[in-house]
């Protein structure tokens, strides 16, 4: 069944009969560029033993078209950021009824709350929550996200069968914030080493583009520009290292003006912008 309207998108065909394959329905807040979103995409691409389908509480983002291209069923509920809508909640109930998943795996706070509670109310026993950070900074995190986090902490003993975390630190931080301590599983993020491996030609190409000598030592930080990635702390640590070792740094950043807004760099540092694709 395929239905498209202004409020939601539902685009898969529910199988006519039960299969021996476990049917996993992933519920995620959105599919824009991010670590959890990328992990979900990699999982759907690499795991073929069971059946996977995806529900985005918001829109398709970056990974929606890629999932569709790969044949992964996808439903987008088009709910406003940080808010629920009756149309989106009703659409999600219809997805649950049509797909009849064996397991609902939720990704991040809003999806944990909405996907977990509605799946339980629909009679699904196996609900998994996903935690992909080490807690929220109250000075940075939106109020709606903090409220969803608090609600999840209160329900963490009754809604999820398991809570999957990508690190020991993330589980410890959430448990200390009030989450249940009895149902955590640690699964580190996985990467395809056939794709992410040293590339001598790429190394030489980037060094030429950024005017870095072949023998010059380089420290790299790969992260999107967001307060959660703590670029301020990295810059402060490098400033201390520079002062102790008494040598300058050349900083290459796609957003040098943003970097200079959040921290004061030593006068001996050189900051250079570079383009990203």
Q: How much helical structure, as a percent, in the residues? A: 25-40%
Structure class: alpha/beta
Number of strands: 11
> How many helices does DSSP assign?
9
Q: What letter string, H or E per element, gives the SSE order? A: EEEHEHEHEHEHEHEHHEHE
Shape descriptor reads: globular
Give the amount of beta strand, in percent: 15-25%
> For the CA atoms, what is the radius of gyration?
22 Å
> Biggest sheet: strands side by side, in what order?
1-2-5-4-3-6-7-8-9
Which regions are unreliable across 5 or more consecutive residues at pLDDT < 50? 1-17
Return the average pLDDT rounded to an integer.
83
What's the main sheet like?
9 strands, mixed
Distance between the ends: 37 Å
Structural features, described:
Helix 6 (168-176) links the parallel strand 8 and strand 9 (184-186). The protein starts with a strand and ends with a strand. Helices cover 36% and strands 17% of the residues. Helix 3 (86-99) packs across helix 4. By secondary structure, the protein is α/β, with parallel strands linked by helices. It has a 9-stranded mixed sheet, sandwiched between helices.
């Amino acid at each position: 069944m395929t239905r498209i309207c202004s409020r939601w998108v539902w685009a898969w065909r529910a199988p006519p009969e039960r299969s021996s394959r476990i049917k996993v329905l992933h519920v995620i807040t959105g599919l824009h560029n991010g670590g959890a979103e990328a992990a979900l995409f990699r999982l759907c691409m690499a795991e073929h033993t069971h059946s996977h389908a995806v529900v985005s509480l918001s829109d398709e983002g970056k990974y929606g078209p890629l999932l569709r291209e790969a044949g992964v069923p996808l439903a987008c509920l088009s709910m406003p950021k940080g808010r629920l809508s009756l149309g989106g909640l009703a659409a999600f109930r219809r997805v649950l009824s049509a797909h009849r998943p064996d397991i609902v795996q939720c990704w991040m706070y809003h999806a944990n709350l909405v996907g977990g509670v509605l799946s339980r109310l629909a009679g699904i026993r196996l609900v998994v929550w996903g935690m992909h950070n080490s807690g929220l900074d109250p000075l940075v995190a939106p109020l709606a996200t903090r409220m969803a986090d608090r609600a999840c902490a209160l329900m963490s003993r009754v809604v999820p069968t398991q809570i999957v975390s990508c690190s020991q630190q993330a589980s410890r931080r959430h448990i200390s914030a009030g989450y249940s301590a009895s149902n955590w599983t640690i699964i580190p993020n996985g990467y395809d080493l056939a794709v992410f491996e040293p590339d001598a030609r790429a190394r030489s190409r980037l060094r030429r583009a950024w005017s870095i000598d072949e023998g010059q030592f380089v420290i790299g930080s790969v992260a999107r520009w967001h307060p959660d990635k703590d670029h301020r702390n990295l810059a402060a640590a490098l400033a201390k290292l520079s002062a102790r070792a008494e040598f300058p740094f050349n900083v290459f950043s796609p957003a040098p003006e943003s970097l200079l807004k959040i921290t004061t760099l030593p006068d001996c540092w050189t900051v250079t912008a570079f383009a990203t694709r």
